């Protein structure tokens, strides 16, 4: 199981993530230049170099795996490891799909697909730290090591809000409406 391996080997997973980022940057460097990603894809706005991925990805993996370990220790927030593994793989593939849509210049499709997690959050629990890590790893090769963290954080916080609304607020409103009727 993927989740079991990740949760039991925090330092190894972080070192592996650092090695992957280092290989990617080395490849870019040997190919000519390390990419800089500009805000809103406009060169007149500030840019973020892929070199920052050497710091952000290993730290992110350490942080998120630590949080996931703590969540697994608390019974009320513990997740089924099979479900966690499936979600990790889905988030990794979703991130890779987003990256591929961008690489193949399919932004007209991407602008709709990027919101899929928020729609999915109505039905499925998508706001787990390992899902954020998987999404970032899936998009890292196209968008670098910093930009995906911001995108994933916004999507997961939006998913948390939607999940909470549909689990707490809507049943409460339905009860009130039914009491009136």
Question: What is this structure's SSE topology?
Answer:
Layout: H1 2-8, H2 10-31, E1 36-38, E2 47-49, H3 53-73, H4 81-103, H5 107-113, H6 116-120, H7 129-143, H8 147-180
Antiparallel strand pairs: 1-2
Helix pairs in contact: 2-3, 3-7, 4-7, 7-8
> What is the total domain count?
1
Query: Main sheet, how many strands, which sense, barrel?
Result: 2 strands, antiparallel
SSE topology string = HHEEHHHHHH
| DSSP summary, beta strand count | 2
Task: State the main characteristics.
181 residues; mainly alpha; two-stranded antiparallel sheet; 2 strands; 74% helix; globular
Textual characterization of the structure:
- With 181 residues, the chain is mainly α.
- It has one domain (2-180).
- It is built from eight helices and two strands, in the order ααββαααααα.
- A two-stranded antiparallel sheet has the order 1-2.
- Helix 3 runs antiparallel to helix 7 (129-143).
- It is globular and about 70 Å long.
- The mean pLDDT is 88.
